[in-house]
Structure formats: structure tokens, C-alpha cells
């Protein structure tokens, strides 16, 4: 694969994008899991799919050269994120209902635009499951910009995001502008999801934001450790997933999720064995 990376620019773009996505998706996913909003990735990914399908439809019917489906996907994802925040304000006592509402809207729009674009084709398939050669140079530059924005925001707002994630009421009393921070957070989530779709695809993007975090939570001893381990597990999954996808000539989204699932399974098994060994030691000392 190293020879292919040196030879083909598309493969290099995909590999670089994978490294960036393996960093920002678990990073933001840690806050999402702690906030108990794991399903938000599914909701926004389906809205992003609607944007991608809309972009393909517009390209087919009107030959829009300035905007690619990737751009319209990002735009739809941001709009979906704003709608979720507004719905959370409308349904204050049932805020979680905002996610299935936006997910349903995304699925409905996706079906309509896919049909208008003459059904499932190779482009839609790559957006659904990811591709090892789907990232252009302009896409890579945009994903780099998104990654830098997310990293800067996380670094600048870390303490506020931490406070809002664990105790929102106390954070508000402390003077934190919760509404503004929520807006920035949901915007970052939309951007990360739309960027990750190029690698893992619409149907699997939520796995990259949650599985590394779930694995990390079984071994980490602090929130910062959870973030660090999540990024490590995410990068391992992306790198091994891309390599496997290349050699087996299959979409990398599936292989990335399989690697993430194996890492989680091995971690759970290790903890179980470790717990049994500890019990045996306690029984031995008690005897």
C-alpha cells in the first residue's frame, strides 16, 4: 500500500483525511457520549445524506460546477444542527425528541433527492459506506480547515464544554453562556460528521464517534485520559480499516467499524479476565 500511496494522489488524500477524522471524530465523540447525545450523529448523518443527494441531483440536472455534493452535504448538516438546537428550545422537557425528528426529515429528503437523481449510483454508494479513493485535493483542504476549527474551539472552550457536559445547571449559574456554547458545539458536530462521511460513510459515521469512546471508557481513569485513548483507538481503527479496505477492495467504512468493534470486544474481555484474576487473589488472601 505504501507504493500505491506514493503513486496515487487520491489514496494519499484519503489517508490524510482518515488521520484527521480519526482525531476529531473521537475527540468530539467523547463530549457527545458524556452529554448522552450519542444518537445525534445518526440524525445529522442522515440530513447530510439528504444534502449529498441534493448536490448529486443539482449536478445532474443543472451542472453546477461551483459546488460539489460534499459542499451541499456540509450545508445541510449545519442547517440540521441549527434545527436541532431550535427544537431543543421548543421541547424543553423532551429535548431528545429533536433527534428523531431531524433524522426522519433527513431520511425523507434523502429518498426524494436520490429518486430525482435517478436512484442509487456509484457516487451515492461511496457516500453511504465510504471509499478509499473518494477524497479530492479540494475536499482534503476543506477537511483540514474543519479539523483546525474543531481543535481550536475545543482548546479554547474546553473548560466550558467540560462543565456543561457534566453539570449544565451549575455551569449556567457560574455564568457560562450555555446557549452560545451549545450552538458552537452542535456546529462542530455537524462539520465533523460531514467530514467523516468521506471515509466511513453516512450509515457508519456514528460508530466512529462512539465505539472508540466506549472502548476508552473501560480503561481510562479520567476525562482527559478518555479523550486521549479515544483518539488512539480511533486512529488505529481508521488506519487498519483503510489498509484492509484497500487490499480487500471493499468500502473502508465497514472495516473501520469492524476494527473498532474488535478493539471494544478485546477491551471488555481483558477487563473481565482481569476482574476474575483479582477475585481469585482476594479469595486466596482471605483463605
TrEMBL record:
<dbReference type="GO" id="GO:0043190">
    <property type="term" value="C:ATP-binding cassette (ABC) transporter complex"/>
</dbReference>
<keyword id="KW-0813">Transport</keyword>
<dbReference type="Pfam" id="PF00950">
    <property type="entry name" value="ABC-3"/>
</dbReference>
<dbReference type="GO" id="GO:0055085">
    <property type="term" value="P:transmembrane transport"/>
</dbReference>
<feature type="transmembrane region" description="Helical">
    <location>
        <begin position="140"/>
        <end position="158"/>
    </location>
</feature>
<keyword id="KW-0812">Transmembrane</keyword>
<dbReference type="InterPro" id="IPR037294">
    <property type="entry name" value="ABC_BtuC-like"/>
</dbReference>
<feature type="transmembrane region" description="Helical">
    <location>
        <begin position="254"/>
        <end position="271"/>
    </location>
</feature>
<protein>
    <submittedName>
        <fullName>Metal ABC transporter permease</fullName>
    </submittedName>
</protein>
<dbReference type="InterPro" id="IPR001626">
    <property type="entry name" value="ABC_TroCD"/>
</dbReference>
<feature type="transmembrane region" description="Helical">
    <location>
        <begin position="15"/>
        <end position="34"/>
    </location>
</feature>
<feature type="transmembrane region" description="Helical">
    <location>
        <begin position="227"/>
        <end position="248"/>
    </location>
</feature>
<feature type="transmembrane region" description="Helical">
    <location>
        <begin position="64"/>
        <end position="85"/>
    </location>
</feature>
<keyword id="KW-1133">Transmembrane helix</keyword>
<keyword id="KW-0472">Membrane</keyword>
<comment type="similarity">
    <text>Belongs to the ABC-3 integral membrane protein family.</text>
</comment>
<feature type="transmembrane region" description="Helical">
    <location>
        <begin position="97"/>
        <end position="120"/>
    </location>
</feature>
<dbReference type="GO" id="GO:0010043">
    <property type="term" value="P:response to zinc ion"/>
</dbReference>
Amino acid at each position: 500500500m505504501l507504493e500505491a500511496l506514493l503513486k496515487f494522489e487520491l489514496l494519499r488524500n484519503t489517508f490524510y483525511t482518515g488521520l484527521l477524522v480519526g482525531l476529531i471524530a473521537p475527540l468530539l465523540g467523547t463530549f457527545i457520549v458524556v452529554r448522552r447525545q450519542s444518537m445525534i450523529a445518526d440524525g445529522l448523518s442522515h440530513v447530510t445524506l439528504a444534502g449529498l443527494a441534493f448536490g448529486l441531483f443539482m449536478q445532474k440536472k443543472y451542472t453546477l460546477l461551483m459546488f460539489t455534493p460534499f459542499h451541499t452535504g456540509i450545508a445541510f448538516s449545519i442547517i440540521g444542527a441549527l434545527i436541532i438546537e431550535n427544537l431543543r428550545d421548543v421541547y424543553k422537557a423532551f429535548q431528545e425528541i429533536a433527534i428523531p425528528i431531524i433524522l426522519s426529515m433527513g431520511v425523507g429528503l434523502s429518498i426524494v433527492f436520490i429518486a430525482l437523481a435517478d436512484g442509487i449510483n456509484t457516487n451515492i454508494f461511496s457516500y453511504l459506506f465510504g471509499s478509499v479513493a473518494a477524497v479530492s485535493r479540494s475536499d482534503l483542504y476543506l477537511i483540514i480547515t474543519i479539523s483546525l476549527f474543531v481543535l481550536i474551539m475545543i482548546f479554547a472552550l474546553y473548560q466550558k464544554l467540560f462543565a456543561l457536559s457534566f453539570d449544565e445547571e451549575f455551569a449556567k449559574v457560574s455564568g457560562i453562556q450555555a446557549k452560545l456554547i451549545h450552538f458552537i458545539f452542535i456546529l462542530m458536530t455537524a462539520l465533523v460528521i460531514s467530514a467523516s462521511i468521506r471515509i466511513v460513510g453516512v450509515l457508519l459515521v456514528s460508530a466512529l464517534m462512539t465505539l472508540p469512546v466506549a472502548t476508552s471508557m473501560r480503561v481510562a481513569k479520567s476525562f482527559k485520559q478518555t479523550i486521549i485513548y479515544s483518539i488512539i483507538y480511533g486512529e488505529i481503527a481508521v488506519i487498519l480499516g483503510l489498509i484492509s479496505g484497500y487490499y480487500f477492495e471493499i468500502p473502508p467504512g465497514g472495516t473501520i467499524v469492524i476494527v473498532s468493534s474488535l478493539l471494544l470486544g478485546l477491551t471488555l474481555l481483558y477487563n473481565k479476565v482481569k476482574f476474575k484474576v483479582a477475585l481469585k487473589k482476594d479469595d486466596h488472601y482471605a483463605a
